[in-house]
Structure formats: structure tokens, C-alpha cells
Design brief:
Blueprint lengths: L1 H13 L33 E5 L1 E2 L18 E2 L4 E9 L3 H7 L16 E4 L8 E5 L4 E9 L4 E2 L4 E5 L1 E2 L5 E2 L1 E4 L4 E2 L2 E6 L8 E8 L13 E6 L10 E6 L13 E6 L2 E6 L1 H10 L3 E8 L6 E4 L1 E5 L2 E4 L3 E14 L9 E9 L5 E3 L14 E2 L5 E8 L3 E2 L2 E2 L5 E7 L11 E2 L8 E8 L2 E2 L2 E2 L4 H25 L1
Parallel strand pairs: 1-12, 24-33
Antiparallel strand pairs: 1-6, 2-3, 4-5, 4-7, 7-9, 8-13, 10-11, 14-15, 15-20, 16-19, 16-22, 17-20, 18-19, 21-24, 22-23, 24-28, 25-26, 25-27, 25-31, 29-30, 31-32, 34-35
Helix pairs in contact: 1-2
């Protein structure tokens, strides 16, 4: 009998089995070689399992079943663990059966009542302790977690467990991977004015978008702020790691809209695909800005299982520029055309258009014409000191006159726009003269008449000179 048990144990250990869930987070059966046998197990030794939970840090150190010193992270209290006996290890047949065990195919042994412990409840921060355990393979499942923590994946563990030096570990220590949910939201709004599309990206970090963290419910929800067109918005989920595959609309997920709320719900097929890939998922939402507001503040939520997590807040800022065109006498001038261009300051303080750039389109036009009062206001221009959700230098803009009112000289100088978070209503005033270099500039046909008159004078002089010569 002992020989048969030795043979079975050697088969299991030599196979180097890893007892783990989908994510591969587990205690590995350390392989001491085929010489390790259950005949060396001392049945009088007490057996236990201690689960150590840490938040806020990961370690690449491989767990061996023995207690480890200096594990990084904060002790994770309040995590509830349940253990189930899924395979006794009393006979050769038991050891043979253990070879094919996985988290998914293992079934609970009804002779053992599942035990539940919460980390920190026994007075040791971050630890859950199970003692007086019969020999066997146990499935460990996180059944409850604090707010903001994603339940880790179930795993299997031997008690006792073979050590690398050939001994048996009777008091097994497990360090399951910690998954703290952090929903990160970012915004791309650089150079986006009225009529342009603001892009939000929502990423569930850690494993809140993979494996056990998905559960039977996985939903991204974003209530877009006023000023963004939710009805026309697009929502596109994908794996953060594109090599993990693609997510297909109406097969892996659905998109619904209700007022300003955009919701992406993953189907069972989509959740299974995410679980199999074990990769994070992101959702990119693109919505048109309509220029009606000067600030858009936004958060998103992700629901995994029965827990909803809230992202950080992102903010976008815009402003308005009023251009006033007037005569030297102070009267407003109608019919002056302006463009908004990216510009840079040069030597002596002169501004010039950035080479290779085109006039900015704001709303539906790139040309803005003064009205009867000599004014035109451009609404919804991106500010210059806050970009993509953070303080920083954005593109600088200048007002460029492209056509003067009839009878007036155009101003060739670019006028910078001082549009900031603190100054969202900027103004630019341009005075036109009816003369340049002592010559009247009337614009339009006035210029033509002056030129023709000049030609007439030259022609008359030439005729007189020829007559006198004759």
C-alpha cells in the first residue's frame, strides 16, 4: 500500500502541477523530485492554511507555501475567504485524481463543511487563518471584499504541501494576488473647439476588467456633461493590449443611450472573451462639443459583479473671443473678415502664423465677419493654459484679418488672443485707417479707381511730353 501511495505521489509531484484559477494566481506544488513520497508525511502534525492579503503593491516573488518576509503592500483587512475541500489525499486513488484538478472542474467534498474567515478578524492584520485541516486539496475563494477592491481569482492549494527541499509544509502560507480597483479616466481635448469631438477613455486598472473581476455583470457608464452631444456619441470598447483580440459590437457588447448617459454593457460572450484573454478593457467615448458651455466636468463608473467603482474627474475648458473692428473715429465697421490661426511670437514681439497650419474651424466656419456694430464673437475656443485634463501650455491663437471693410486698409498684424481658465471672455480690438503711406485706402473699387486715376495721370504726362518734343 505504501509503495502504491509513493508511486502516486511521485507522479503528481513530478508533473509539476500548478493549482490555480484562470489568472494563474496560486500556490505552486513545489517539486522536490520523484523521491518525495507521502510515506514521509507525519499524520500527527497539525495542518493549517494562512492566507496573507496585501493591498497596493505587487511582488514577482514566487510563493512556495512557506511564510515570506518583507512582502510589500498594506495589510488587506476585510477580505472574506472561503475554503472548500475538493479532494482528499488519503489513498493512491486520491493522489491520482488530484492530477487533473482545476478550479473549474473541482467539486466540493460534502464530508467537509466549507469554512469562512475574514482577514484581520483574528487580530493579525491582513491574515485569515484556517487550522485543524484534514489532508487534501482546497479551493480558496474570495467571497466578499471591501469597497474599491476587486475579488481575486479562486485558486487551489495542497495541505500539506511539498517543499523544494524534500520536506513537507504542514502550515501552508498563501499570498493571493491583490486586485485593487482603480478606474482611470482621461480626456483628449487639445485643439478641440466648438464643433470638434472630445474623446474620453475609461480604463479599469488592475484586474477589474479581467478574469474573476468581471463576474456576471460588467458595465461601463458615462454621463456626459452638458455641451456634449450624447445622442451622436460613439462608444468603442477594446482590449488595452490589442494583441488580446477584438470586441465585436452587438456580439460582445451593446451600447445604449439615455439622455446624456452612455452605457456599454458586456454580454455573456463578451465577458467570457475578457475572462479567457485575462486582459484589461477600455472604452473610448467620442462626443461633439457644441460651444454652449465653457467647462465640462466628467466622471465615469464601472460595475463589475455587484460592485460599482467611480473614476477620477476630468475637466475641459473653453472660452469666447470678441473681435471689435472700428474706425479711427471709434465707429464700428461692418464687413471685416477674420480668421483664428495658431501663432507664435517672434523677435521684437511680432506674431506670425505657425508654418504648415490652417485656420481653425470653430463651429461650422473658419471665417468670421463683423456685424453692423463692428463686432463678431467666436464661441467655444479651447483655452491656452489647460489641455487634456491638466494645466499646461496648449496652442496659442491669434486673430488674423483677411479682408478690410470697404474703404479701409486691412491690418496685416496678427493679434494674440489671451484665453485662459481665468479669462474665458477675451477681446481683441482693431482700428482701421483710411490711409496708408499718405494714400487713401478705400478698399474694393476705391483701390481700382485710384490705380486707374494714377495711370491716367501718367498717360497724360507721356502724351504732353511727346507733343512738346514734336
Amino acid at each position: 500500500m505504501a509503495r502504491a501511495i509513493r508511486k502516486s505521489a511521485a507522479i503528481v509531484l513530478a508533473a509539476g502541477l500548478t493549482f490555480a484559477g484562470v489568472g494563474g494566481v496560486a500556490i505552486e506544488s513545489a517539486v522536490a523530485g520523484a523521491q518525495q513520497t507521502v510515506s514521509t508525511i507525519n499524520p500527527n502534525n497539525s495542518r493549517s492554511l494562512t492566507i496573507h492579503k496585501r493591498f497596493g503593491a505587487e511582488t514577482n516573488t514566487k510563493a512556495t507555501g512557506q511564510e515570506m518576509a518583507g512582502v510589500p503592500g498594506q495589510a488587506g483587512n476585510g477580505v472574506e475567504f472561503q475554503i472548500e475541500l475538493v479532494q482528499k489525499l488519503d489513498t493512491p486513488a486520491d493522489w491520482e485524481a488530484a492530477r487533473t484538478l482545476t478550479v473549474e472542474n473541482a467539486t466540493a467534498d460534502t464530508s467537509f463543511s466549507p469554512q469562512t474567515k475574514t482577514t484581520g478578524a483574528d487580530g493579525v492584520a491582513g491574515d485569515a487563518y484556517f487550522n485543524n485541516l484534514p489532508m487534501g486539496v482546497y479551493r480558496v475563494t474570495e467571497t466578499a471584499v471591501p469597497t474599491g477592491v476587486i475579488a481575486g481569482k479562486p485558486f487551489l492549494v495542497y495541505v500539506p504541501m511539498a517543499a523544494e527541499n524534500g520536506d513537507w509544509i504542514y502550515n501552508v502560507h498563501a499570498y493571493p494576488k491583490n486586485n485593487t480597483a482603480t478606474i482611470a479616466k482621461s480626456v483628449k481635448d487639445a485643439g478641440i473647439h466648438n464643433g470638434g469631438n472630445v474623446e474620453y477613455t475609461i480604463v479599469a486598472s488592475g484586474d477589474s476588467a479581467a478574469g474573476a473581476g468581471v463576474g456576471d455583470n460588467f458595465v461601463f457608464t458615462d454621463t456626459l456633461p452638458a455641451g456634449l452631444d450624447a445622442a451622436g456619441a460613439t462608444a468603442t470598447p477594446s482590449f488595452v493590449d490589442s494583441s488580446a483580440g477584438t470586441l465585436v459590437a452587438n456580439t460582445d457588447y451593446t451600447v445604449t443611450k439615455n439622455g446624456q448617459q452612455v452605457t456599454v454593457t458586456f454580454t455573456e460572450a463578451g465577458r467570457n472573451k475578457i475572462t479567457t484573454a485575462n486582459k484589461r478593457v477600455q472604452v473610448v467615448i467620442s462626443a461633439k462639443y457644441d460651444g454652449t458651455v465653457n467647462q465640462a466636468t466628467n466622471k465615469a463608473t464601472v460595475t463589475a459583479g455587484n460592485t460599482t467603482y467611480t473614476s477620477n474627474e476630468v475637466v475641459s475648458h473653453w472660452g469666447n473671443v470678441t473681435i471689435t473692428k472700428k474706425s479711427s473715429a471709434g465707429a464700428g465697421l461692418q464687413g471685416a473678415d477674420f480668421q483664428l490661426v495658431q501663432c507664435q511670437a517672434g523677435a521684437g514681439g511680432a506674431w506670425s502664423q505657425v508654418v504648415g497650419t490652417q485656420p481653425e474651424t470653430v463651429g461650422t466656419t473658419a471665417t468670421f465677419t463683423t456685424g453692423a456694430d463692428g463686432k463678431v464673437t467666436i464661441n467655444g475656443i479651447h483655452v491656452q493654459d489647460y489641455v487634456d485634463g491638466a494645466a499646461g501650455d496648449a496652442a496659442k491663437y491669434c486673430v488674423k484679418e483677411t479682408k478690410a471693410p470697404a474703404g479701409y486698409v486691412g491690418d496685416d498684424n496678427l493679434r494674440p488672443v489671451n484665453l485662459t481658465v481665468a479669462n474665458k471672455n477675451a477681446s481683441v480690438e482693431i482700428t482701421n485707417s483710411t490711409s496708408r503711406n499718405l494714400l487713401p485706402n478705400t478698399g474694393g473699387m476705391g483701390i481700382v479707381l485710384i490705380v486707374l486715376a494714377g495711370l491716367g495721370i501718367v498717360g497724360a504726362g507721356a502724351f504732353a511730353a511727346r507733343r512738346n518734343a514734336a
